[in-house]
Amino acid sequence: MSKRIFNGLLSVLLSMNNPLATAWSQETHNESIRNPSFESDNGWHHLRTESNEYYAPVHGTRYAVLNGSGAKIEQETSLQLSEGKTFHVTIWARSIFDTNHSQQLTSPTQDYPDGSNEISRVRLELRIGNKSLAENEAGMNPVEILGAPQEFSNDDGGNVWIDGGYRHAFSESRFVQNLEHDPIHDPWDIAPDFEDYKRAQEDHGAVCPVIIRDRKLLYVSTFEDPEGELEEYHAIQFIEPTGDGSPDYHWPPSPPEKYENLVLSHAGDEEIIAFDPYVFFDEIDQRLWMAWGGNFIAVTELNPITGLLLHEQENPEVMTHENIHARVADRATDQQDIWTGDNQWIEGAAIYRKNDFWYLFASYGSLMESYTIRMGRSRDPMGPYVDKDGIALTQFNKQKRRFGNSFFLGDDRAQIVPGHPHLWEEGEQTFVGYDYRKSKKRVDGTEESRDIFGIRKVYWKHDWPTIWTPISVSISAEQYPALLGQQIILSIENTGDPDSIIAVDNISCSDVTQNK
């Protein structure tokens, strides 16, 4: 196939949102590294691979598995030190659990497993013979956020906006952090306006903050008809604080009244629950979008000036207005999803734009037992959203026995049952905030733990977000003139605790000198 024909076909596939385009448009791996994504058992010494969608590998379906305390894989590559060359090698890694954890997650007994506190570390090394030329070692455990999040419960997500020189987190609690600090490794404080914030949104469930030009809104959920006239009443409203956020705001003295700032409501049944709003202001097109719902997920366009529906409904029956609300994700029923047992639920959605794609995230399963964050993407905020296999999130996948979706984040070391994601950017770095627990509700009736505020870095690989971490080393021939012409050995080792397990995927090598 000529390059011209290949590029033309690739362009067509990308425009169709076809998953084949993901594989074809990836960076070209240096052929000097054999089997760089571990899709076979070739090319490596001591290689063991696994395939589990729960861990969302960054390329293909398989990844290398390294047990703790020294498990290592190696390859004598075809890379040679040659004059003027500088090589840059990158691996992608994360911590995973053993197969027993996966078996318990999918067990019909639904005695869901807790996490673990083992330290997971990975070491990447380039060497010639026994001489180490370059190495990098990194921890793989998700980080426990310090400060107020260690004391205050954080139900319904890690919802963050940046204002007044501070990061502001809104959920059950209210945290702040100076922008000069690292959001993951430095402590967060309880907000000085915490008590006023609680009064303004008391008992209003999941919240979502959004800054629309010069206006700040906090969208909230309502679960009961204040007048007691309607059964199964659910609504989405917003609260408008004022102030410059350095670091507090002025909040209304009480929650909104029934029809005050009312975005939408639904009553009489639970076909869809009008709650868990996630509002995203698209600064590129200056349009406002809301993902919302429980039982299934919908996306609705809002008016960026009023904060309410862009198109007014003729009656309160939400899903009779398909031109206003797009049904974008469905849940499995009749115990068809092996990862969620008998709780086939979906809620806690998020919508996010990155370049030319829109990404939809949702929380699947039971928040006490089997929560996971899954995703799909689309070129239109109203969908359809498809998973990595090209299956729509509203289409039943007979092979997987559930509706389409791809995993983003599940149990990881001591952080388990993550849910309610919120994404934001700082410079070139994407972050995701979420809530998680340290233990699950067990069949013996043991009380589950509180929700905790979590943050992870998000990277973008093949136009999909991932929490896998890139780890890199560089080597220049100028550093080792006596070794010119010799083959480079690539070594990857788990240097963590004995019971830790590391997964490695998608190794690439680039000639940095050619990119200068």
Summarize the structure.
This protein is mostly beta strands. The chain has helices at residues 3-15, 19-24, 99-105, 194-200, 512-515; strands at residues 49-50, 63-67, 72-80, 86-96, 121-128, 131-139, 159-163, 166-170, 174-178, 189-190, 207-212, 215-222, 234-239, 262-266, 278-282, 287-292, 296-302, 325-330, 346-354, 357-364, 372-378, 396-397, 402-403, 406-409, 416-426, 429-437, 452-461, 464-466, 469-476, 487-494, 501-511.
Descriptive account of the structure:
Helices cover 7% and strands 39% of the residues. With 516 residues, it is mainly β. It has 3 domains: 1-30; 34-139 and 470-515, Jelly Rolls; 148-465, Glycosyl hydrolase domain, family 43 (Tachylectin-2, Chain A, 5 Propeller). The strands form 8 sheets. It has a 5-stranded antiparallel β-sheet. A 4-stranded antiparallel β-sheet has the order 3-30-5-6, with no helix packed on it. Strands 7-8-9-10 form a 4-stranded antiparallel β-sheet, with no helix packed on it. The longest helix has 13 residues, at 3-15. It is globular and about 80 Å long. 43% of the residues are buried. Residues 1-29 have low confidence and may be disordered.
- Let me know the CATH homologous superfamily of the largest domain: Glycosyl hydrolase domain, family 43
| SS strand fraction | 35-45%
Instruction: Domain count, please report it.
Output: 3
Q: How many alpha or pi helices? A: 5
CA radius of gyration: 24 Å
CATH class categorisation of the largest domain = Mainly Beta
- Average pLDDT level: 89
Gross geometry: globular
Structural class: mainly beta
How is the biggest beta sheet arranged?
5 strands, antiparallel
| CATH topology tier name of the largest domain | Tachylectin-2, Chain A
Strand order of the largest sheet: 1-2-31-4-29
CATH architecture designation of the largest domain: 5 Propeller
Q: Report, as a whole number of angstroms, the end-to-end distance.
A: 29 Å
Oligomer category: single chain
Low-confidence blocks of residues: 1-29
How many E-type strands? 31
Helix content class: under 10%
